[in-house]
Amino acid sequence: MTEHYFKDGQRITKEENEAIIREKERKKEIERIQEESRVKKLKEIKNLTEFCSKCKTKMIEGFITQSRQDSLVTIFGGIYWTQHESGAAIVGRIGLKAFLCPNCGNIDLSVRDPDDLNKLNQTP
User: Fold this and answer.
1) CA separation for the pair 111, 101 (Å, rounded)
2) Is pTM beyond 0.85 here?
3) C-beta separation of 57 from 102 below 8 A
């Protein structure tokens, strides 16, 4: 019995079907590699921020707020880094996390989401 292959209601050859399957597998592999890279970045950031850069004491994760009205700051997601002096522009902002050392009082900042680092390549 002859096998028939269809894509979007159109009949295609076996070779075309195999090419479609290979392309889907290639895309899945790219997604897997990207996810592994994202997880690796998260682990690297966690390792960098877990212990104080000055005295090596375990850090406490928290937030730096801009006013006593924390709810206003929380609505907009906390503090941000931007390449521009005025932080008014939303595009190109990168969310930050703060870590406090309970021993020496040092505060370290890190990127909240490593995927935001891609924004650096997208902003002029």
Assistant:
1) 17
2) no
3) yes
Amino acid at 60: I
> Could you tell me if 49 and 99 are in contact, meaning their C-beta atoms sit under 8 angstroms apart?
yes
- Where helices occur in the chain by DSSP H, the ranges are 14-50, 70-75, 119-122
What distance in Å separates the CA atoms of residue 12 and residue 18, rounded to the nearest whole number?
10
From 89, 97, 121, 4, select the one nearest 46 (Cα to Cα). 97
Task: Please tell me what DSSP assigns to residue 12.
Answer: E
CA–CA distances in Å: residue 121 to residues 103, 115, 124: 37, 11, 8
Q: Which two tokens stand for residue 52?
A: 């104080």
Q: Going by DSSP bridges, is the β-strand pair 80-81/94-100 parallel, antiparallel, or unpaired?
A: antiparallel
Asked if residue 94 lies in contact with residue 45, where contact means CB atoms within 8 angstroms, the answer is no
Residue whose pair of structure tokens reads 């000055």 in the numeric block: 54
Q: If you search the block for the tokens 């505060």, which residue do you land on? A: 107
Chain segment 56-80, per-residue pLDDT in tens: 898 888 776 654 444 444 445 566 5
